[in-house]
Each structure stands twice: as C-alpha cells, then as structure tokens.
Amino acid sequence: MRGSIALIGFGEAGSTFARTAGWCSRAAAFDVDPARRGEIETHGVTPCANPAEALAGAAIVLSLVTADQALAVASECAGLVAPDALFCDMNSVAPGTKRRAAQTFAKAGRRYVDVAVMAPVNPAHMAVPLNIAGPDADEASERLHEIGFTKATVVGDAIGRASAIKLVRSVMVKGLEALTAEMMMAAHAEGVADDVLASLDASERALSWAERADYNLDRMMVHGRRRAAEMAEAAQMLRELGIAPMMTENTVNWQRILGDRGINPPPAGYAAKLAAFHKKSIGEN
Predict the structure, then answer these.
(1) In the chain, how long is the greatest CA-to-CA distance?
(2) What is the strand order of the sheet 4-8 is part of?
(3) pLDDT band of 230, cuts 50, 70, 90
(4) Model confidence band, residue 282 (pLDDT cutoffs 50, 70, 90)
C-alpha cells in the first residue's frame, strides 16, 4: 500500500495492532503521554513529537484515543492529513460525535471514515471485527485489509452507522454486565447465589435475539404494570441489603412506561410493537 500508517494514540489498541501486524517503520505514532514513547520505539514504530509529524505522508490514519478526546483529535487532524488519506476514527463515541467530526473533515476537503471496533482487541488482535461506514468505506476496508486487519465489514455509506450498531449493542451487553453485578451482590448477601443461578439455567430459552426482543417487549406491554410493582419490591430488597438499585429502579420505570401505554394485545413482531409504542408516546390513538 502506498504511503505509511499513522497512529494517533498508542494505548492498548494501538500497541496491540502495531505489535501483532509487525508494522515497524511502516508506521508512525503520536501519543499525548510522553511515557509511551519508549513503547512506541519498542515496537519499531517511529515516535513523533506531534500529530502533524505522525500524519505527514500517511495514507491511512488510525485514531485510537480516549472517547472524550476523539472529537478534538479529529478536528485537529482534519487540517493536517493528506488529501488522499483516509482518517479512520476507531474510537467508541456516539454516532452524532462522529458525524460532527466528519463535517470538520468535509469542510477541509479531507476524508473521514467511521470505524467501530466490535470486540476487545485482546485476544482477537488483527482478527478483531471492524464495522466500517461512510462514503469511503469500501476503500477503507481494502486499506485496512492491506495493513493486516482480517475482519473488516462495510455496513453502509452513512457516517455514524457503524458506531450506532456498536453503541446500541452496548446498551444490552454492558447493561447485562451491570445487571449481573446487581443481581449477584444481592444473591450473595442473601446466601442464595447458587439457587438463583440454577433457577436461571432452568428457565433459559434458546432464542434468537430477534425472537427474544419480540418476546420481552410483549411481556412488558402486557404485564408491565404488574412487573413494575414486583421490581419495586426487588429495589426495596436491594436497599435493605445496602445495595444501590441503580439498574433495578430503571427497570421499574421501563416496565411501568410500557405497561401504562395500554398496547394490549401487542402486534406481532418487535418492529410493529415499537411502532405502536412510538405512536402512543407522541399522543396518537
């Protein structure tokens, strides 16, 4: 591939990619933490004093910074990258944040790509799944494959789509992690952890996520009020155990909101259920 690879940010992701792919002198990197210069050199990558130095001559740029710095970094780099370079924003930020960053690049006449890293970089390394979106997504996919990524998938030409898939999915994945913590702390405090886990195993159903979403929405629309009352008692139990019911209290809210809409019987399919909920939410009959 013509040109070099520029890494803006050399934390876990940047160092893992550089080491596994063996980019060495093909890559240049800048990190705001001066202590990382030694690690950059250890991987044979050229350390740079500032973003401009790292971006000089780069054909592909991987932005791998903290989420709170992603927009500022993109704004700075928009005026520094070469006209034919692809700036791949791989940070976990909201779709709107990436759209704002893309506007900065568009004003500068430069190219911006929305890339979502869909799994932990360790232990996947270069096989970590990447979702790619934007007008230049196809070319970005080719270049990412050329530098060693093996699972890059184009999901559309609209900036923000890749990030939307990741962050909406994270509502479930990270939410389940938080619910697990809340559940297990209560189960341990009551001395019923093994029994609770066994009960969950016994009631687990093998469903696709589309079927699961439809089923869960159905139960909430039909029985939401009753379930809200039950979960209010669960929240009270947690408080009595000295555990903040942060997830459970909002479960009460969602169960009550869907139950109060009175969509009973609910239509078939999760899409129809969501459409019916939206109509009720904005005051339509």
Answers:
(1) 65
(2) 46-47, 27-30, 4-8, 58-63, 86-89, 111-117, 130-133, 152-156
(3) confident
(4) low
Asked if residues 65 and 73 have their Cβ atoms less than 8 Å apart, the reply is yes
Residues 6+ apart with CB under 8 A from 273: 214, 217, 218, 221, 263, 266, 267
In the structure encoding, which two tokens stand for residue 61, read together?
């740029």
What is the CA 140 to chain-centroid distance, rounded? 19
The string of DSSP codes covering 140-190 is: HHHHHHHTT-S-EEEEESSTTHHHHHHHHHHHHHHHHHHHHHHHHHHHHHH
* Tokens 């970089």, located at residue: 121
Burial class (CB in 10 A: 0-12, 13-18, 19+), 29: buried
In whole numbers, what is the pLDDT of the chain averaged over residues?
A: 93
pLDDT at residue 283 in the model: 57
